[in-house]
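Record type: ASSEMBLY
Status: queued
Input:
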Amino acid sequence: MKIIVIVPAYNEENCLSPVLHSLLQLDPPLDIIVVDDASEDDTVNIARKQNVPCIPLPLNLGTGGAVKAGYKYAVENGYEIALQFDSDGQHDAEQIGSVLKPIVDGKAEMVIGSRFINKTGYQSEWLRRIGIHFFSFLTGKVINVKITDLTSGFRAIGGHLLPLFARAYPDESSDVEALILASRSGARIVEVPVEMKPRLSGNSFFNLKQKLIYPIFRLISLFVTLFRTKQQYRID
Amino acid sequence: MSLRIQIVCVIVAVLLLLIVFELVRRKKMAEEYSLFWLITCFSILLIAVWKGLLFRIAALLGIADATSLLLLVLAALFIIYSLHLSVRVTKLSQEYREVVQWLGLIRNRINTIELKRLDESEKKKINQETPIE
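Status: finished
Output:
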């Protein structure tokens, strides 16, 4: 099966190089695409120096928009599975196999790598953790699957989800809405345990304003989602 | 309506008209959007200058207090219009995000093609430089 690793990156000149290096070491090798979310630093050149193709977005769209561009690339180039992998060094390339396995085995169309199943490794700061637990629980209830790490950027999709996400990946509150979209389209969603590390350097892209406003957006989108039909999701 | 209010209304309407005109002239507002504001300005002017109009409409609708009619109409108008603008902005931002994504994809493709060409021309150069035995 043709697999691609999508690495969304925004101002990650310090972290991207080791991340790409660890991905290039993988055996068997996987294709990689970096999506540069209009970084102001040298992110694009770092990807090019390592001979990794890069989608340079001309304007900043946020992680959701960057990942969607990656899905479009995957569909255009005939990939069947797309794995999302953070560019800040939080994820371990060694664990990609276990995230991909349920899809490769045909047991799921969407896999989320969760740091809260085995509760080992970096568990995030407490305020964010509470938020993640709360929204994971709520979203899990809506889609009837136990979710523990909603915001995890270590995830993979395959099957019918890849063309669907390339076309209709939600712009806002992507983490909540993407799960619900997937579930509505009939995808099987599973979580697998992974271990995360604190980011290598620099600031996380969440600032205080986003911390306060994102939860409200998520609540709205969760509530509204309950009343959406399949047609409104552009599933077919 | 006292003369003072009439004068204030005319001044406000004319000022608004000038602002809208200037915004369109500087291309900060599209003609398409100026229409709503032009109609608003002229309505204010009309009501201010033609004293009896507001009372006549109020009487026609059976509303005793003409000023509350004015408030009601204004509030309704602006609420509906800002809803409309929110929908438009959402649509524009969705379209803009799609365009940005495709631009990124196309830039990547151009880069790949250029690299390939560079590779090939370099190979050609090397082939030309090494004499064939």
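Annotation: Residues 66-129 of chain B form the longest helix (64 residues).
Annotation: The mean pLDDT of chain B is 88.
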